[in-house]
Fold this protein.
Amino acid sequence: MLKKHHVGQSFDDFLQEEGIYEQVQLNALKKNLAHQLKTMMEEQGIRKTEMATRMKTSRSALERLLNEEAHNVTIATISKAAAVLGKRIEMALVNSGRDT
């Protein structure tokens, strides 16, 4: 069996070199969150109008939360959505894993 070895830079290094690492990470996080919320709403049979009402927020605020491209949502909005779905959010600051 031939042993493969790494050639070139890592993808993270490439993103950092291009100056877009943080934005790519943020985009991935938001897409994941929006997908999780949509999936849970679907599983629980909760429509958007009902979700917004339960969250005591506007439909437009919910749309921003569920929009994978919109990043201007608050932690409070995320927390309300989680509570409606019987969940809670956890946040932590962790080491970036890259040299600073």
About this structure: The longest helix spans residues 21-43.
